[in-house]
Structure formats: C-alpha cells, structure tokens
Amino acid sequence: MSVRSVEVVLVKAGRTKIRYPAEVVADDGDRLTVRAPWAAEGVRDFGFVRFEPGDVFTEHYWRDRWYAVKEVRSADATLKGWYCDITRPAVVDGGEVLVEDLDLDLWVSADGSRILRLDEDEFRDSGLAERDPEAAARAVGALDALEELARAGGLPGQDSGSRKRS
Q1: Burial class (CB in 10 A: 0-12, 13-18, 19+), 97
Q2: Is the Cβ–Cβ distance between 18 and 85 less than 8 Å?
Q3: Which of 67, 105, 126, 158 shows a CA-CA span of 20 to 30 A to 137?
C-alpha cells in the first residue's frame, strides 16, 4: 500500500474540536488505522498521563463500532498506554475521517494495571440521553465493551506486551 494521508476531524457537540493530518497505516474496509503526532498545542497533563510534543498516536477507527482506540507512545517509542474515545462510527470519505466524540473516554495504562473510565459526568451533562436515547445507550454499551476488551488484553497492540516498538 502506498503511503497516503488523511485529515482526521474530531467533532463534538456539532463543532469541530480539532483537525489534523495523519498517515494511513492500514484500511481493511472496516477498520482504518492512522498514525499522527500529538496534534494539540503544548502539553496536556491529565494526572495519569501527559500528552506532549513528540508523542505519536496510532489511531484505530471503525466504520461500524462506537469507539476509537489510540495507542500513545512517547518520542522514544515508549508505550504510554491507550486513550479510547467513545464516538459514533467513523465516516471515511476520501481524504477525511470524520469522528463525532460522545464525551465518554477510557484510559488504559501501558502495563494494563490502570483502567480509568473518564468524563462520565460530562456525558450525563451533555443531554445526549434526552436528545438521542439510542445513541446514548450505544455509547454506554461501547464504554462497557471497551473496558472488558482492555481487561482481557484485547485492545489493538495491547497483546504485544512490549513497551518499545521494535
């Protein structure tokens, strides 16, 4: 496969949250995998992980699943962990990957010992359950499924057990 790039567009509450270029790693028709450097400005410290310039994200988007999984590595390729976004299924159209963030997130540490459900209060406050109960139920189900997958070591790249990319 020749190297090609796409633009990832993350939308939240009807507005574009961030847009950035990414290199396509693989696309089997169901799952699109891209790689991109940390796209935000400066450092973002969550307390349990820091995202910073030089970090590299390998991002997995599904056209039929309600989540995206992002493997995060530092500039020296040390695995930091996985940041998982609960989203509507990705829409891949030509050179653009459109992803609608539904507020819920899951963090999984590199060794799998720490699994954190994030932003459940933000999700409750979003009003999605009232506006679109079916989507809200799918989002909660996706978070549960992702947590189960993470606990079983089944996230993309999680089974490798290596902290450095070879």
Answers
A1: buried
A2: no
A3: 158
